[in-house]
Amino acid sequence: MKPTLLAALCAILCAGPTLALAQDEDDWEFQHEASLNQTVAAVRYDAGVAIVLQCRDNALSAALVGMPAGVGGIEVQARRADGRTDLQTWVPGPQPGVMLSTVPARDIRFMRGGGLYSVRTVDGAPRALRTNFDLPTQSANLDRVLTACGWALTDDRDQLGRAGSEVSFRDPAAPPPRLPQPRRGRGARPGMPDAPEAPPPGVPVPEPAESQISCVLRAMRLTLCRLDHPPTAAGNEARRSLRRLEGVQMYAADAAAAEGKVVYTAGPRTVTVIDYIAVGR
Fold first, then answer.
1. Using an 8 Å Cβ cutoff, are 48 and 30 in contact?
2. Is 168:270 a contact under the CB 8 Å cutoff?
3. Among 76, 224, 227, 226, which Cα is nearest to 162's?
4. On the chain, which terminus has fewer CB atoms closer than 10 Å, C or N?
5. Of residues 52 and 15, which shows the higher confidence score?
6. Which of the residue ranges 109-118, 192-201, 261-270 has the most confident prediction, judged by mean pLDDT?
7. What's the number of CA atoms in the CB half-sphere (13 Å) around residue 264?
8. What are phi and psi of 228, to 5 degrees?
9. d(Cα 113, Cα 149) in Å, to the nearest integer?
10. Which residues are bridge partners to 168 per DSSP?
């Protein structure tokens, strides 16, 4: 999450009831700030828990606020009262208790319509998370956030299952990559300390939603790859990303279960939601 989203969260959650947010009958709270090119929809609950959706400078984001601190990247089974289910991935934000969606447009569309929105970590997760949200019955203000960032209110790929951590670009049977070994500095003598190791990687940050690419798994290869939020004129790098991804071999312990699912990546760099889970845990 960038500082702009952090500012939006603070404006909505810290100001309390004094903040002038428009709210139609049982709809999401809404705020549009033209000077900041910002559109926000939010729903707040007790104990500081909230869902905050934002379009800021044409960049879409979705955040769960008030989650348990210390939770890394998580994969959850999401369920709606009407029977809809989906797999979702959330990663840590810049502050404890803030989780960011790695595929915000799809996850926001999943929240359309009122009633129960339940998230549960999958079986075997290192840390369990179980949360229920009672969503407003109206979704007009939620739709305004999607529209402000140029996202469609429906997408045919939302009807396909989403590939999760069971699908990977890496062959699990392949030997692990060799990590570089620390070397002593030139002229180091016995008893002298080694050169300091590189610092560990920081908290993973989701790639911009607008760089999102989705592909459908067929016979464990990526097919029908597309830019989910096509720019006005797709750049050469974006087109190269699509060409590189098309036909790429994927791996899963159960290939039959993965058949026909959607894999979400980010271009122009091929970074998958699976990698976020691995780093965040």
1. no
2. no
3. 76
4. C
5. 52
6. 109-118
7. 30
8. -75, -20
9. 20
10. 251
10 Å CB burial of residue 149 (0-12, 13-18, 19+) is: buried
The CA-atom distances, in angstroms, between 39 and each of 21, 27, 65, 209, 226 are 11, 15, 18, 16, 27
The structure tokens 């894999």 sit at 263
Predicted pLDDT of residue 251? 95
pLDDT of amino acid 261: 97
Residue 218 token pair: 């067929």
| Spatial separation of the C-alpha atoms in residues 96 and 69, rounded to whole Å | 5
Q: Say what the pLDDT of residue 125 is.
A: 76
CA distances to 78, 197, 255, 268 from 120, in Å: 7, 37, 24, 31
Distance CA 76, CA 129 (A): 8
> DSSP letter at 22?
B
| pLDDT number for residue 20 | 43
Contact 264, 276 (CB under 8 A): no
124-135: b (≥16 Cβ within 10 Å) or e: ebeeebebebeb
Q: Which amino acid is at 221?
A: R
Average pLDDT, the chain: 81
Check residue 180 and give its pLDDT.
Answer: 59
Residue type, 34: A
CA 29 – CA 54 distance, rounded (Å): 12
> What is d(CA 40, CA 11) in angstroms, rounded to the nearest whole number?
10
| pLDDT greater at residue 71 or residue 52 | 52
CA–CA separation, 146 and 108 (whole Å): 8
User: Rounded CA gap, 117 and 130, in Å?
Assistant: 11
Q: Residue 6: helix, strand or coil by DSSP?
A: helix
Could you report the per-residue pLDDT of 118-170, keeping only the tens digit for each?
999 977 777 788 999 999 999 999 999 999 999 999 999 999 999 998 899 98
